[in-house]
Amino acid sequence: MDILITGFEPFDGDTVNPSWEVAQALDGRVIGIGRVRACRLPVTFRDAPQRLAEALAQGRPELVIALGQASGRSEISIERVAVNLIDARIPDNAGDRPHDARVVALAPDAYFSTLPVKAMRDGLRAAGYPAGLSLTAGAFVCNQLFFELQHRLAGRGVRGGFIHLPALPEQAARAPGGLPSMGLAAQIDAIALAVAIAMGEVQVARGADEGAPTG
């Protein structure tokens, strides 16, 4: 099984992005019957969708998990919904800062993750990792990429979704006033476990396969 995990380059003046550090560390790892293939994405509205399309075309992934950084969050945030909206709080790495734009014209207003989000949350918590479900991936490149992913996978029978990661300790130490953080080794192990749960390799006691909304 081909498992695609994407991560982003650093942005907003930082020198590291935990999403790529985690994806890179998992590149080539065998998890259950699958092998991870990592892809580094630019933090630009113009180029991220095209790079995603190329990564999808390079293999035949049966599971795709996109990772991003959410500075200020203290837990691994498993995103439930991507919205068809770009409204940039800061410029991207190319200096672009679009407002009130649609990700894909004439596409639905939102897509839900097709990952087993509750099982992943419960499994991570049971293993001791702080994890939760999130109803907003923001309106920056992370949300754009999440929406593009779900739009491209719609109807293909491939599970996909997005997970936001906390800042790394070195990033938190540089931030004025500090930030919540999680060590890289813990983030790597947590995402490896999340992949195993999404593949059905790990059974979670209370977990439910609920990628679609149930109320």
Automatic annotation (TrEMBL):
Any GO molecular function: pyroglutamyl-peptidase activity
CDD domains named in the record: Peptidase_C15
Active site per the UniProt annotation: E79, C142, H164
Cytoplasm among keywords: yes
Location(s), subcellular: Cytoplasm
Gene3D superfamilies membership: Peptidase C15, pyroglutamyl peptidase I-like
SUPFAM superfamilies: Pyrrolidone carboxyl peptidase (pyroglutamate aminopeptidase)
EC number from the UniProt entry: 3.4.19.3
Catalytic activity from the UniProt record: Release of an N-terminal pyroglutamyl group from a polypeptide, the second amino acid generally not being Pro
Transmembrane residue ranges: none
Pfam families reported for this sequence: Peptidase_C15
Protein's UniProt keywords contain Transmembrane: no
Keywords, in A-Z order: Cytoplasm, Hydrolase, Protease, Thiol protease
Subunit structure: Homotetramer.
Family named by the database record: Belongs to the peptidase C15 family.
Biological role: Removes 5-oxoproline from various penultimate amino acid residues except L-proline.
Protein name listed in UniProt: Pyrrolidone-carboxylate peptidase
